[in-house]
């Protein structure tokens, strides 16, 4: 490609094009990047508070365990749910809210390998179809969105703006989906957090063969022992 374009656009223009392309790729693949639009990365707090966010549910086997764990610790969380799973398990979605937690949109089918490169129509369908399912069940559309594996492209923010939603990334993660040690995951998260951190965890079956509830138990327990509370921050505290 370089040999073909060189005489057409010149070396300087080619360099600018390559740099611009690299920046676009970086902004797409980095969940916390704001180059493509606003991204929530933490919340304002002077107290030992964190925002626990739990992706990939609802799961009929794991969600009830997670809810019981959160009750035991007096913790509150936001569940970023897959639309198709919410549609299949509406009672679980209702129970999440009834037990004091909130719900966000994590796309309809969670196309983790392709979401970042989907065209505008497909991006819109993934977000709006999940919103429609959540609204049918809970009576209100969600205002929070988390992209599958955190990756977004230039077509995501226009849809979020039309839906009056905000994109939420995270401050701390410990790769709980692949780790085989809940204790290690707990130590990693506790070692990374500060007041106002957004913690990323997952529910359901994990690649490691463990359940998300096992990781969540270790993390919330570790945070509790360090004096942290898991809260759901108000929208005006998000930054």
Verbal overview:
By secondary structure, the chain is an alpha/beta fold. The chain has eight helices and seven strands, in the order αβαβααβαβαβαβαβ. The chain has helices spanning 2-29, 63-73, 83-88, 90-98, 120-138, 156-163, 182-192, 212-225; strands at 49-55, 77-81, 102-105, 144-145, 166-167, 197-202, 229-230. The strands form two sheets. Strands 1, 2, 3, 6 and 7 form a five-stranded parallel sheet that branches. Strands 4-5 form a two-stranded parallel sheet. α2 links the parallel β1 and β2. The longest helix is centred in the N-terminal third of the chain and has 28 residues, at 2-29. The chain is globular.
Secondary structure elements and pairings:
Elements: H1 2-29, E1 49-55, H2 63-73, E2 77-81, H3 83-88, H4 90-98, E3 102-105, H5 120-138, E4 144-145, H6 156-163, E5 166-167, H7 182-192, E6 197-202, H8 212-225, E7 229-230
Parallel strand pairs: 1-2, 1-6, 1-7, 2-3, 4-5
Helix pairs in contact: 2-8, 5-6, 7-8
């Amino acid at each position: 490609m370089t040999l073909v374009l060189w005489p057409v656009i010149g070396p300087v223009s080619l360099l600018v094009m390559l740099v611009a392309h690299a920046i676009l790729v970086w902004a797409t693949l980095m969940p916390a990047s704001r180059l493509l639009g606003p991204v929530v990365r933490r919340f304002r707090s002077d107290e030992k508070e964190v925002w626990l966010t739990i992706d990939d549910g609802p799961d009929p086997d794991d969600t009830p365990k997670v809810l019981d764990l959160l009750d035991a610790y007096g913790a509150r969380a936001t569940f970023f749910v897959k639309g198709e799973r919410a549609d299949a398990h509406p009672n679980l979605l209702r129970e999440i809210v009834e037990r004091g937690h909130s719900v966000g949109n994590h796309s309809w089918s969670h196309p983790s390998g392709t979401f970042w490169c989907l065209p505008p129509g497909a991006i819109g369908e993934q977000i709006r179809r999940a919103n429609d399912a959540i609204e049918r069940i809970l009576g209100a559309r969600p205002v929070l969105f988390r992209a599958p594996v955190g990756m977004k492209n230039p077509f995501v923010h226009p849809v979020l703006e039309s839906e009056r939603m905000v994109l939420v990334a995270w401050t701390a993660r410990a790769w709980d989906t692949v780790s085989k040690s809940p204790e290690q995951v707990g130590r990693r998260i506790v070692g990374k957090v500060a007041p106002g951190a957004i913690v990323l965890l997952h529910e359901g079956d994990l690649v490691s063969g463990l359940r998300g509830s096992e990781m969540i138990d270790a993390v919330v327990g570790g945070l509790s022992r360090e004096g942290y509370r898991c809260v759901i921050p108000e929208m005006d505290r998000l930054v």
